[in-house]
Amino acid sequence: MKFNEVIGHQKIKQHLISMVKENRVSHAQLFCGPQGIGKINLALAFAQYLNCHNRLDDDSCGVCPSCLKYNKLIHPDLHFVFPVVKSTKHKNPVSDSYIGEWRQFVLTNPYFNVHQWFDFLEADKQGLIYSQESQEIIKKLSLKTFEAKYKVMIIWLPEKMHVAAANKLLKLLEEPPEGTVFLLVSDNPNEILGTILSRAQRLNIPSLEIKEIAEALQKEYDISTEECERFAKLSVGNYVNAREIISQGEERTFFFDKFVSMMRLAYGRKLFDLIDWCDEMNRQSKERQKNFFDFSLRLIRENFMMNIEEKDLLYLTPEEENFSVRFAPFINDGNILQLSEEFSLAHSHLEQNGNARIILMDLCLKVIMLLKQ
Questions:
Q1: Does the predicted model carry a pTM greater than 0.70?
Q2: For residues 209 and 11, is the Cβ–Cβ distance under 8 A?
């Protein structure tokens, strides 16, 4: 991937290019920021630029043997680590167990999030970078580079790395083999082991600007400039969100329907119906449940903004706005903080492998009480 294929982030691109030109490439770098903004795209473009045979002033050439292999993600000195799931076929999986699926997924869908990756794998459980991955990393990096100046190891979502694997990598991150560059790409750096964080040079990548997203949407979709700008605003700086809003994906529709039914049942205090609602949500994967909580937090925030008449700060689709006109009065100063806290707490408890059905039922009971405030 070339830098000109990455949406926005001009200052970040210039910083990375300058780093290479001035020969001050750090051996361990952490690209962190919100989901859907192109962090892994920047990492791939940077890796390609590092090993390009005919670097241009502002990008890799795209046509040398190294670039051609990078374009297909098959360069022998480019390695990936990413969350995977256990299955009947892969009982002790490492990233290489799914490298074929990974290449297919990334090449056909350059902008993605972790939930889309697990959906692609048809996984019904949370994925991890398991402890055995550390041995694979050590084995790969113990070998000399095949044909490039730099051996690049891209670790996507190091926050999902098992503690045992993370601890085994500490010495390697601190003193890697000559010519080795680690590029860690994180959505939630606060969840990364502190000793890992301290060994990587951190690069904070901001959300995309509305104009940048709108221009990218216009290139990808046959829609008007006005629609592109509206969808870009609704995305809140996240290109993956913008694409999902346009396609009105099944996932987004499912979350919206579940949120609406939850709030209506809670307001009506229909406990038996809420139990059925919890049972249905309990059948979803934990990743999907966590994404539902994130979606709900956003809608709660938007309804509060509508209630206090901050129209310039509203980011709602037409369908969401139609619902919120009637629902917004129930989200107010008296319950907004507590509602947000309860949904965040539910998300946290799921992360800690709590019982999903109990978490969901407890949340519903809290929402019943809070909607009456």
A1: yes
A2: no
